[in-house]
């Protein structure tokens, strides 16, 4: 029952965030980034990738972290076979590079984002923020739910997997 309640709370927060003005869009839950993702069905592909990349303990760490979390639909937009290929043990380094490109050290709320802002990811490359027509974009991904607070950082849900320069 506790898991069902957590899932419903997360789903409600994500749904509500899409109708909430940016200056009032901070949501707090009692979970770390990994627990939050595990409790959210539409992030199950991300969870599987984090497990395959042995990044669970890192993302359960003290942080704070800002995670741009691609949905299952975002992963499905990748070319056929890409996710399956990345999840193979021999491609772990590539998987870790892709996943850590979605993580920025520190806690960056949507109200902190500036048009043209650059941020260095844990992977080492920069991402670029674009603010246009009331939407925030991270590289070519649109933020669909912002400021979901976790015990060790903040999660922004995105609609596209962003890929680091290779």
What gross morphology would you assign?
globular
Q: What structural category do the secondary elements indicate? A: alpha+beta
The percent range for strand residues is: 15-25%
State the end-to-end CA separation.
44 Å
Helix segment tally: 7
Largest sheet: 8 strands, mixed
Q: What is the radius of gyration?
A: 15 Å
* Secondary structure: number of strands: 8
Query: Helical proportion?
Result: 25-40%
Helix-strand sequence: HEHHHEHHHEEEEEE
What does this structure look like?
- This protein has 166 residues and is an alpha+beta fold.
- 33% of the residues lie in helices and 25% in strands.
- The protein contains seven helices and eight strands; from the N terminus they run αβαααβαααββββββ.
- Strands 1, 2, 3, 4, 5, 6, 7 and 8 form an eight-stranded mixed sheet that branches.
- Helix 3 (44-52) crosses helix 7.
- The termini are far apart.
- Mean pLDDT is 85; it is low at 1-27.
Helices and strands in order:
Blueprint: H1 2-17, E1 27-28, H2 33-38, H3 44-52, H4 56-59, E2 65-70, H5 72-76, H6 82-86, H7 92-100, E3 103-105, E4 118-120, E5 126-132, E6 135-138, E7 141-150, E8 153-158
Parallel strand pairs: 1-7, 2-8
Antiparallel strand pairs: 2-3, 4-5, 5-6, 6-7, 7-8
Helix pairs in contact: 3-7
């Amino acid at each position: 029952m506790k898991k069902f309640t957590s899932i419903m709370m997360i789903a409600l927060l994500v749904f509500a965030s899409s109708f909430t003005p940016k200056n009032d869009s901070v949501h707090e839950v009692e979970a770390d980034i990994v627990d939050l993702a595990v409790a959210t069905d539409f992030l199950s592909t991300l969870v599987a990738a984090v497990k395959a990349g042995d990044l669970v303990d890192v993302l359960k760490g003290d942080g704070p972290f800002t995670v741009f979390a691609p949905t299952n639909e975002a992963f499905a937009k990748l070319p056929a076979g890409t996710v399956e290929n990345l999840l193979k043990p021999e491609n772990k380094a590539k998987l870790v590079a892709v996943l850590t490109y979605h993580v920025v050290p520190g806690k960056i709320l949507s109200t902190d984002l500036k048009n043209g802002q650059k941020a260095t990811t844990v992977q080492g490359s920069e991402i670029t923020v674009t603010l246009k027509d009331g939407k925030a974009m991270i590289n070519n991904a649109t933020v669909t739910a912002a400021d979901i607070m976790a015990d060790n950082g903040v999660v922004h849900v995105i609609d596209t997997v962003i890929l680091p320069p290779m």
